[in-house]
Amino acid sequence: MKADEKKYFPMFVDLTQKKVTVIGAGNIAKRRIETLLSFAGTIEVIAPDACERIKELAKEGRLVWKEKEYDREDLYDADLVLSATNNEKVNNDVYSACKCLGISVNTASNRMKCDFYFPSILQKEETVIGLNSAGNPAKTKNVRKEMQKWIEEAGEKHE
């Protein structure tokens, strides 16, 4: 079976008491962090610079931003790691270190270096739906939009 033919099992994990470490602070990191904010206990971002939204979230106390270059020690107390830099050497090192430390990792730049895939999230009150299309983010986004519309319409009918 080819990698693009795989189906991935949707597994829901309690992150409320977990530390998520994100290496990188650009647009991909921002999108993933914004999704994780309502799920993770602690989010720590490691990057020498950050996009404005991540800086805002740090000022609001919603995440910890360490304004520095990555080194392996940043991973030692992480429960889950996202590597989202534009530096392939850093992403590869994060992946290798996480594998040695037994930490689940997602490397945004390389699907083959992921223990899990970041889903598209649809949330209504306490119900959470995670969507994945095995490597076609545009398809997943379209399905999420269709489902969101359907949920909103169904809600209007019951009001």
From TrEMBL:
Pathway stated in the Swiss-Prot or TrEMBL entry? Porphyrin-containing compound metabolism; siroheme biosynthesis; sirohydrochlorin from precorrin-2: step 1/1
Q: Which NCBIfam families match?
A: cysG_Nterm
Q: Show the coiled coil region(s).
A: none
Q: What is this protein called?
A: precorrin-2 dehydrogenase
Reactions this protein catalyses = precorrin-2 + NAD(+) = sirohydrochlorin + NADH + 2 H(+)
Gene3D superfamilies from the UniProt entry = NAD(P)-binding Rossmann-like Domain
Per the UniProt record, which EC number(s) apply here?
Answer: 1.3.1.76
Species of the source: Blautia stercoris
Keywords on record: NAD, Oxidoreductase, Porphyrin biosynthesis
